[in-house]
Design goal:
It is built from one helix and three strands. It has a three-stranded antiparallel beta sheet with strand order 1-2-3. The protein is globular, with a radius of gyration of 14 Å.
Length: about 60
C-alpha cells in the first residue's frame, strides 16, 4: 500500500473497504473484503453488482 501511495502505482489488490454500492445487496456502510484499484488516493472498489442466489456447486471438470 505504501508503494501505491508514494509512487501512484495503480494496481489491483484485495482491500477491506466500505461497501458504498460495490455489492448492491448489502448496505453501503458495511465493510467488505474485495478487489479494488489502489493508487495515491486510496482504494477504489470495483463494482460486482448483485450477489448470486444460486447455490455454489463447486468446480466442474
Amino acid at each position: 500500500m505504501i508503494n501505491l501511495i508514494r509512487n501512484n502505482k495503480k494496481d489491483i489488490y484485495t482491500f477491506n473497504v466500505r461497501n458504498n454500492g460495490t455489492v448492491l445487496d448489502l448496505p453501503d456502510d458495511v465493510v467488505i473484503e474485495t478487489n479494488a484499484m489502489g493508487d495515491k488516493n486510496g482504494a477504489h472498489s470495483i463494482s460486482i453488482g448483485h450477489l448470486s442466489t444460486k447455490p455454489d456447486t463447486g468446480c466442474k471438470a
